[in-house]
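Below is a filled-in request sheet from our internal design queue. Each sheet records the structural input a requester submitted and the sequence that came back. We keep these sheets so that new team members can see what a complete request looks like end to end.

REQUESTER: design group, bay 2
PRIORITY: normal
MODE: inverse folding
CHAIN LENGTH: 83
BACKBONE (tokenized):
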């Protein structure tokens, strides 16, 4: 399981936001998929599904829980953030 950016009290402290990083993060999340950061209960719902009998045949795979952010990356996005 690979959760993306999830709104928790820990998130703002981890990122040490700078104006540039905040602009990039907001733009990335608003332009992709759900258009926002995830909520803890959304991650919990996926965990509950994977632990249930309904997912008994699911194994050996990673589940991205990022609201579509990862799917929207192009190679230039990584360069922009790394500069």
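RETURNED SEQUENCE:
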């Amino acid at each position: 399981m690979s959760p993306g950016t999830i709104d928790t009290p820990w998130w703002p402290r981890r990122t040490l936001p700078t104006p540039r990083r905040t602009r990039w993060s907001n733009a990335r999340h608003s332009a992709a998929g759900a258009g926002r950061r995830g909520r803890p209960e959304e991650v919990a719902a996926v965990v509950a599904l994977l632990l249930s009998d309904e997912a008994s045949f699911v194994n050996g795979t990673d589940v991205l829980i990022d609201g579509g952010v990862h799917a929207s990356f192009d190679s230039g996005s990584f360069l922009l953030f790394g500069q």
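SHEET NOTES:
- The longest helix spans residues 19-31.
- The mean pLDDT is 78.
FILED BY: M.R.
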